[in-house]
Amino acid sequence: MPKPSASKATGKTRRFISGVVEGFYGRPWTMEQRTELFQREKKWGLNTYLYAPKDDYKHRMYWRDLYSPEEAEKLVALITAAKKNGVDFIYAISPGLDITFSNPKEVATLKRKLDQVSGFGCSSFSLLFDDIETEMCPADKQAFSSFAHAQVAVTNEVFTHLGQPDTFLFCPTDYCAAFCTPNVSQSAYLHTVGENLLPGIDVLWTGPKVVSHHITVESIVEVSSVLKRAPVIWDNIHANDYDPQRIFMGPYKDRPTDLIPKLRGVLTNPNCEYHPNFVAIHTLATWCRSEGGRVGGQRDVEMTGGDDDEAGSDPCYSPKRALTLALTDWLQEFLSTDQPGGPRPLNPTHLKKESSDEEPMQTDVGDPVYVPSSGDNPLFTAEPLTLDDLQLLSELFYLPYEHGSTARTMLTELDWLKAHREAVGDAETEMTAEWRSRAKCFDVMCVAVFTMFNRLSNAPNRSILYDLYNYICDIKSGVTLARAYVKQLGGQSRPSAQVMTDDPEPWGFRGGLSGEFQRMLPCHGNRDLFRHPPMTSVYSIRPFCPEDKTEIQKIHMEMQRGEAKAPAAAGPVLISDGLAGGQLSPSPNCGLVLEDERGVCGYALGLTDATAAALNNQRTLPGDFPSLVTMQLHPRVTDPAPARRMIGSLLSLMKTSGSRGVFCELRQGDRRMFDFYSKLGSFTTLKMAGWPQDVVAMGTSL
């Protein structure tokens, strides 16, 4: 553990502060969760809990109000539980929203509130002035030369009133380097704090930024020089209260253990959700034990860096190994049932009659065990969660500034498969083989995500699952769409209607008003952790010419395949097959071709009079729709806009050629084109007597 330090003010030996700050915006943790946290801290060697939930209204918004007897009882129980586990309970109060620093009544009210909490058995305190307006009221401007002087004056008075507690923390308004004007070393605010704050008061600091990627020894030496004391790091590396779509389960990292002797302490302000913070807190504890590579005087061999760690990694601490230790312990919590009636392994031994304290609703206890016959569906069995599943979970929800290795690999492979989709053609080449091999590997990774989701969903500990469920559902949805897209590119499935539509299902796109605001901004997406140059397809529409027949036939045949390299799928013959296959020529000026940078990628062809073609196929034409149109797009065209322009242009050409109405034919399974025509708004489904049941006709008047 870090060595204790001597206080310059009192000469007393003070232990290194290490633990958790509950300082996020959102629903506070429950009393039961906090009590469990104290037990974990004791077990892992952490010693501090800072009570600062932003949404405890008597901590911040209504800081003047005393706690009611019921609230007081809960706080007393919480402080007692912390002491029982050797955890220093620090009560924080945040009066900066509306306090008048120069008003003695306000200061007296603040003292009264902290005296009440002191009466609960609390002996450690913190004054927080973060995330507030810096403009002073007129009365304070007359009394103080600066905002910093006002804060320091009140803090010193309260600290003295409380008898100069061994632990008293001050959070400045400029609590990171990014907030300092013009910089840390020249900040008038920080210099005022450093020169005037009593030496027994410690200062909280988040590092270079609010959420700091790296915290270096050099940066801490600089701020310590200005503050005239070593700071306590309030670390937001695992905080997620700024984005409800993100959660972080990667290890504590990018803070060298050489920092420890330069600091007064480290407190992690983790995810809003309690249970997923297991990794954040566990790995912080491991980091704190790794100072100088020693634990209890012995080198911690398990935690020192090795060949499998990043170049230039900390010789005393390995994030990768710390993560494995944390996930190994967390797995045991996942597998423990946290409430009656939780999932159990589905096997016959658990279906037998148990003791008399069986839950009343389990009325099937003692019933004969169902054994499926050879032709029946097998019984569903919930596969147990594994360490590999949790490793994958962590890598998908890693840290604010980086994805885990599996997530990076999946993004890289998807980007490559998309960029080299032209390699999937009729001719087998080395590039084609590589594309299919990488697509197969990508598919395996997708399946691993689905497997992890299913196992997590059936884990006995439901409390952990409920904290994670929205996040794992979200990633499963995204991976499902990516997998379907790759299969479509590879010809392993029919093009999805979800891909080529401007009216997708809600689960097919990132929703929410906040997302729409961001997409309207010029720099949206430039902070994606996986970056590549933007790719924009440019399409052109031109008249059909006879030389286009070969390319049109290729598209037509490819769209009929059920699987890559499989023959055309069996199905009803369409009149329009003759147009796309080259046996029929479109009427003059009634053919269009869509091209992108790689060549022909779509077509729209028409017959102004389809009577003869229909007779050859032993079909009658719909009376008001004598003309036939057919349109198809290559799977790489996912933007519906050029398709709408092309079919609109073709209909105009056919009207000019004398047509009063057109129809199109679709195989019943062609959901993609059925949705496309339906959403044009002009085509309606026709009832055709004598036509095959698996052929759908749609028509529109011109």
Automatic annotation (TrEMBL):
Catalytic activity of the protein: 3-O-(N-acetyl-beta-D-glucosaminyl)-L-threonyl-[protein] + H2O = L-threonyl-[protein] + N-acetyl-D-glucosamine; 3-O-(N-acetyl-beta-D-glucosaminyl)-L-seryl-[protein] + H2O = N-acetyl-D-glucosamine + L-seryl-[protein]
Enzyme Commission numbers on file: 3.2.1.169
GH84 domain ranges (all copies): 16-292
Top-level division of the source organism's lineage: Eukaryota
Swiss-Prot/TrEMBL GO biological process terms: glycoprotein metabolic process
GO molecular function, one term: beta-N-acetylglucosaminidase activity
PROSITE patterns (alphabetical): GH84
Region (Disordered): 336-364
Matching InterPro entries: GH, Glycosyl_Hydrolase_84, O-GlcNAcase_cat
Keyword vocabulary terms for this entry: Glycosidase, Hydrolase
Protein's recorded name: protein O-GlcNAcase
Gene that this polypeptide is encoded by: ogal
